[in-house]
Amino acid sequence: MNNYEIEVFISKDEIAEKVKKLGKIITDEYKNTKELVVIGLLRGSVIFLSDLVRELDLPVSIDFMTVSSYGNEMESTREVKIIKDLDENIMGKDVLIVEDILDSGLTLKKVMGILESRSPNSLKLSVLLNKTGRREADISPDYIGFEFEDGFVVGYGIDYAQKHRNLPYIGIVKEVK
Length: 177
What we know:
single chain, alpha/beta, Rossmann fold, six-stranded mixed β-sheet, three-stranded antiparallel β-sheet, 3 helices, 9 strands, 21% helix, 34% strand
């Protein structure tokens, strides 16, 4: 897509309010844990993860995985590649995966299967955006920021060909003819 514009879909203030609410819910649910391991999927989750962990009133450690299924395209290649694995052992620990967007679910289904095989005490998923219209895998997030049916979005960590991650809002990409 060469010519496109970005329309504001979810404002900076709406995101901040939702992240604060999610932080309170997660804090309440994990209040008896010794340590919550928060795993971000790079690169898209970084901004959401950073804001979310600041809202958690819990002992937290952070780790990252790098997985890819998009490359520089707007459609998933359907091939999930694990580029960087965790540094931390999660066996017996409470684990929260933080992801920017749940789309087809294929990538997260694979990642969750890998992490479940490592015997965490618990494994839950928090997504900023739950894109329901193109779900292919049987996966449901435990914590959801916003839900929408379909559309290509950017901003607040989410990119198009590595651009627009730094937008403070979520925008919908519209092709200009």
